[in-house]
Each structure stands twice: as C-alpha cells, then as structure tokens.
C-alpha cells in the first residue's frame, strides 16, 4: 500500500529515536557529545537533537546510507569497534529506556537542505497518512508543504517517507530562528487563504499529527 514514486538511487535515512531515563538525560548528552566521533567515523550523521517541547527526555538522530549493503557493512564494523563499544555503547545503554528506528526515503520532490545559519530551533512534525502512499496523498501533501514554505517564515530541511517502521508516515523537519519566530509565522500562515486551502485539501488523507520542538546537540552537523 505504501507505494509510489521516490528517488532513483538507493540512498535512505535511518531515523533513530531514544527515550532516555529522566534523571539521566544530562549524562546521556554529555557522553554523546564526547564520544560520538567514534560513530561518525563509520557513516554520515545528518543531525542529532533532543526534544524541548512535544515530548520529554527524547533524542532523535538521523543517519544517511548509500544503500542497505552500506548499512550492513557499517553495522558490522561498529560491532567490532572497541572504542565505540567500550567507551560509548556500554556507557549509554543503561541510560536508555526505549529505542525505535525507522528507514525512510526523502519524498521525490525534496532535497535535504540546511538552515541559512547556525542557531535557531528545529521542528519535527510526524504525519500519519491514510494507507495508499504518495501515489494517493503525495500531491496534496506537497501542496500543503509548499504553501508553508511560500510564506517565508520557515525553512524546510527535509521530508521523509517511511519504508520500514509504521508505514504511510511522513516526517517533516523544519528550521526556524526561534520558537517565537515560528509562532508568529504560524499565526500569519493561518490567516493566509492559500495555506488554509492547501491544508484543508491535504487533511483529507491525514489520520494523526505530532509536533516536537528539537534542539541540536553540540555534535550535530545540523545546528
């Protein structure tokens, strides 16, 4: 059911979400900032964030792979990396309550972007769409995203469609200068007839939505 057009190469993104024990969040982030270079020596990290609003004690990180063979090679190398296993994994696993991973592709009309400057905040918006995939709801969803982009208050970083994990799910990553800048932009967008029309058309295919405000870690390439 989750079929439809996507990019012509094998590149995909693994989205990993961890729930951290509330009393251990500070310790977890300190360990990640200190030792994550052992992990990034093996494959490309897109970004690493912690939740500020919309969820508590949660971290989210995105890894890029050329294809599934590439991921298999990386995972094998990590299993044999004594620094990675000994200095980071053994230290952080007792701090983690739950782990989740998803494999996703960028939607066909989206390229992975970067913010115009460092600083600011990120918003991670998860849309659970009705079964059928981009072939069913892709056009309406793209129109709704573009309507928000055209207001100029926010910057699209990426839109990801799941391949493994809960299907018919789209994650959209936005960048804003600040939470207040985002709030002001949202209020203006809600008064824009073009945005309202595009959103009303796309929600016909929507089952649920969740938003998180994310703050990048020091070690995150996207800041």
From TrEMBL:
Protein name, as recorded: NPS3A protein
Stretches assigned to coiled coil: none
Membership in a protein family: Belongs to the NipSnap family.
GO CC terms of this entry: mitochondrion
BP GO annotations: mitophagy
Residue span, NIPSNAP domain: 13-111, 122-221
Signal peptide, first to last residue: none
């Amino acid at each position: 059911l989750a079929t439809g057009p996507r990019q012509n190469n094998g590149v995909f993104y693994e989205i990993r979400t961890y729930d951290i024990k509330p009393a251990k969040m500070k310790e977890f982030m300190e360990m990640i900032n200190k030792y994550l270079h052992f992990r990034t020596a093996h494959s490309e990290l897109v970004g690493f964030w912690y939740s500020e609003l919309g969820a508590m004690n949660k971290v989210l990180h995105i890894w890029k792979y050329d294809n599934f063979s590439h991921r298999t090679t990386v995972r094998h190398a990590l299993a044999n990396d004594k620094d990675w296993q000994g200095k980071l994994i053994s230290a952080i696993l007792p701090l983690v309550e739950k782990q989740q991973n998803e494999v996703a592709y960028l939607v066909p009309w989206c390229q992975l972007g970067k913010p115009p400057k460092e600083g600011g905040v990120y918003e991670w918006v998860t849309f659970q769409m009705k079964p059928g995939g981009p072939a069913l709801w892709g056009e309406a969803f793209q129109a709704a995203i573009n309507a928000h982009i055209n207001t100029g208050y926010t910057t699209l970083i990426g839109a990801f469609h799941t391949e493994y994990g809960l299907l018919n799910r789209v994650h959209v990553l936005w960048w804003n200068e600040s939470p207040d800048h985002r709030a002001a932009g949202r209020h203006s967008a809600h008064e824009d007839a073009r945005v309202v029309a595009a959103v009303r058309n796309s929600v016909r295919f929507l089952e649920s939505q969740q938003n998180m405000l994310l703050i990048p870690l020091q070690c995150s390439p996207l800041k």
